[in-house]
Amino acid sequence: MTSQSGLRPVPPWLYVPAVLGFALIIIPPIALAQRMPWDDFWGSITSEASLQALGLSLRTAGASTIACILIGVPMATIFARSDGMVLRVIRSAVLLPLVLPPVVGGIALLYAFGRKGLIGEHLTVWGIDIAFSTTAVVLAQTFVALPFLVISVEGALRVSGSSYEQVAATLGAGPTRTLLTVTLPLVFPAVLSGVVLAFARAMGEFGATITFAGNSPGVTQTAPLKIYVDEISDPQQALPLALVLVVLALVVVVAVHLRRPGQRRTAAV
C-alpha cells in the first residue's frame, strides 16, 4: 500500500527516535537565539572586526569552492566512469578528509606546505610561503570541502548511467564534447548541490585553518576563528556572529533540499 502522494507509509514507532533526533539538532540553535544579546546584536555583527572576519570567510570560501569545482568535477567523473583496485584506493584517499579530524588535517597540510614541509621547502626557495597566509586558508578549506562535491557529482553520474553518452558517441561527439554537452548538463542539479555544500563546509572550517593558517586578523582570521577567540574572552560577544553563521548554514541546507526527492532524481536522470 502506498499513500496518494506515492510515498510508502512507515511504522508509527519510527517517529519517536526521529523526533528525538530532530530535537537534538534544533534545540542548540534555539538555545543560542535565546541567550542572544539582542540589544547589541546589530552593533556586534557590523563591527569592523566582525565584518573583516566574515568578509574573509566569504572570499576564501568562494575561492576554495572554485578550486573544488575545477578539480572535483573531473575527479568525480573519473571515479564514476572507471573502475579498478587502484582507483578505489585513490577514491578512498580523496574521501579521507570526511573522517579525518580537522586539526590532524591542518597538521598534515603544515608538514606538506609549511616552510620546512615536503613541498613547502621547495616553494620557499622560489619565495613562496603558503603557511599562515590567506592562501593557506583557501587550501585548508579546499582540503575539507572537496569530498562533498566529489560525492555529490559521482553519485549522480552513477545513477544517470552512460546511455546518453553512448548515444552521443555514436553520433560522432568526442569525449570532451560529450562531457560538456551531455554529461555535465545531465547532472547539473547534483553539481549545484555539491557546490553549495562545499561552500558551506568551507565557510564553517575551523580546525585545519587555525592549525595551518593561524589566526591573524585580516589575514587568516575567518568568522569561525573570531567566534572561537570571542568565546574565550567574552562568550556573549561570540553569539551574534555565531547566529549569522547558523542562519547562513540553514539557508544553504534549505537551498539544497528545497526540491522534493522525486524532482531531484528526475533532474539527475
From TrEMBL:
Subcellular localization(s) per the UniProt record: Cell membrane
Protein topology in the membrane: Multi-pass membrane protein
Keywords: Cell membrane, Membrane, Molybdenum, Transmembrane, Transmembrane helix, Transport
ABC transmembrane type-1 domain residues: 54-256
Segments passing through the bilayer: 12-32, 61-80, 92-114, 134-157, 178-200, 238-258
Pfam families documented for this protein: BPD_transp_1
Matching InterPro entries: MetI-like (IPR000515), MetI-like_sf (IPR035906), ModB_ABC (IPR011867), NifC_ABC_porter (IPR006469)
Function per UniProt: Part of the binding-protein-dependent transport system for molybdenum; probably responsible for the translocation of the substrate across the membrane.
Family, as annotated: Belongs to the binding-protein-dependent transport system permease family. CysTW subfamily.
Protein name, per record: Molybdenum transport system permease
Source species of the chain: Williamsia maris
Lineage, opening ranks: Bacteria, Bacillati, Actinomycetota, Actinomycetes, Mycobacteriales
